[in-house]
Amino acid sequence: MDLHRATRRGDRKSQLGIFFSNGLQRADDASAVSAIVPSGCWADTVRMGLDGSLTNQLLIAMPGMADPNFSTTVTLICEHNDEGALGIVINRPLQLKFGGLLKQLDVADPDPSVVDNPVMMGGPVGPERGFVLHNPGAGFENSLAVSDDIQLTLSRDVIDAMASGVGPQKSLVALGYAGWEAGQLESEMLANSWLNVPASPGLVFDTPFNERWMSAARILGIDISQISSDAGHA
């Protein structure tokens, strides 16, 4: 699946992700994200495989990260090519729960076991759009294999399956995504704004959210809390 070529064929907001009419603009969750979701932020990318791609890597924000959207975040890069990158932040839970998203979609009588599942702030781009990371298994209409163990689905059918209690065994729901233009992420890597490690299902789906930043860095043998904030800036 080409995630991003669709954004060149029309209105970006109408093309990418699962649309929620209110997204993060509902009164009950707007305050939780008003400080970290700017308006008018868009990036365009097109899928083209590259040697040295950061696809299926976790980006670990360095302590010097100046952008509040990404301070102390861990971001799964789902696609990276010569025209940009797309990622999902995996450690910024919102006050909004999955049940709140289902109400926006008029889903009646969802499985009680899923309504209190957390929803992530996936990034500052398109906060009215939903994305689901999950383990492979049932085929959905619009999915991308990030790796052999992780898929990204953008179609409504995965939400319906989860609401019915027959969704993927492991999943992470996010509103919004992180986007980089051509060469932007490479420049940030050279500026030491990020560390990167290979993604694992355990970190993406199982590690407690508040432990993911430090746990990801420990894969490199690093205690990131001991690194000076002067070591990386973006």
Let me know the average pLDDT.
82
Oligomer: single chain
Low-confidence stretches: 4-14, 24-50
- The number of distinct β-strands equals 11
- Biggest pleated-sheet summary: 11 strands, mixed
Overall CATH architecture: 3-Layer(aba) Sandwich
What portion of residues is helical?
Answer: 10-25%
Total number of distinct structural domains: 1
Termini Cα gap: 31 Å
Strand content: 25-35%
CATH class: Alpha Beta
Structural class: alpha+beta
Can you write the helix and strand succession as a string?
Answer: EHEEEEHEEEEHEHEHH
Query: Which outline best applies?
Result: globular
Rg calc? 17 Å
CATH level 3 topology: VC0467-like
Give the name of the CATH superfamily.
Answer: VC0467-like
The number of helical runs is: 6
Plain-language structure description:
The model is unreliable at 4-14 and 24-50 (pLDDT under 50). The chain has 234 residues and is of the alpha+beta class. The protein has 6 helices and 11 strands. The chain has a single domain (5-33, 46-221), classed as VC0467-like (3-Layer(aba) Sandwich), CATH 3.40.1740.10. Strands 1, 2, 3, 4, 5, 6, 7, 8, 9, 10 and 11 form an 11-stranded mixed beta sheet that branches. Strand 8 (143-145) and strand 9 form a beta hairpin.
What labels would you give this structure?
single chain; 234 residues; VC0467-like; globular
